[in-house]
Amino acid sequence: MVSEEIRDRVSAQPRFGLKVVTWALAIACGLTVANLYYAQPLLEVIADSFHVTRGAAGVVVTATQLGYALALALVLPLGDLLENRTLACRTLVGTSLALGAAAFVPDFGLFLAASVLIGVTSVVAQILVPFAAHLAPPDQRGRFVGQVMSGLLLGILLARTLSSLVAAAFGWQTIYVISAVLMLLLSAALRVVLPRRRPTRGVTYGALLKSVVHLLRTEPVLRHRALVQALQFAAFSSFWTSIAYQLISQFGLSQAQVGIFALVGAAGAAAAPLAGRLGDRGHGHLGRFGAILVGVLSMVLAGFGSSSVVLLAIAAVLLDLAVQGHQVLGQRDIYALGDEVRARLNTVYMTTIFIGGAIGSAVSGLLYQHVGWVGVSIFGGLLFVASAAVWTFGHVRGDRGR
Question: Mapping DSSP to helix (H, G, I), strand (E, B) and coil, where does residue 197 land?
Answer without folding.
Answer: coil
